[in-house]
Amino acid sequence: MELKQSLSTHVETEKPLRRYGAVEETAWTAEGLGRNQLDIISMAETTMMPEEIELEMAKIQRLREVLVRRESELRFM
Asked: Which InterPro entries match (predicted)?
């Protein structure tokens, strides 16, 4: 019981969080947007496992190495 009272007193005396008005004031309307912008669908994948990310990074690294090698070959031609 004392813990609850001390917590509630601490919360009441605590400085209020700073709020930024832009978050609350921003109102998104479809009036100013073109039809194409309303139909945008995000293709981002939010459920990647860390192992999948590592595999993708390895693929990117291999592609980078190939591109660097080809670029250097073209320079010396």
From this structure: BMERB
Does residue 61 sit in helix, strand or coil? helix
Residues 9 and 2: beta-carbon distance below 8 Å: no
In the chain, what are the domain boundaries? Answer: 2-75
Closest CA to 45 of 34, 37, 53: 53
Q: How many CB atoms lie within 10 A of CB 63?
A: 10
Check: CB of residue 38 under 8 Å from CB of residue 30: yes
- Digit-coded pLDDT (tens) for 10-28: 555 566 666 555 555 556 5
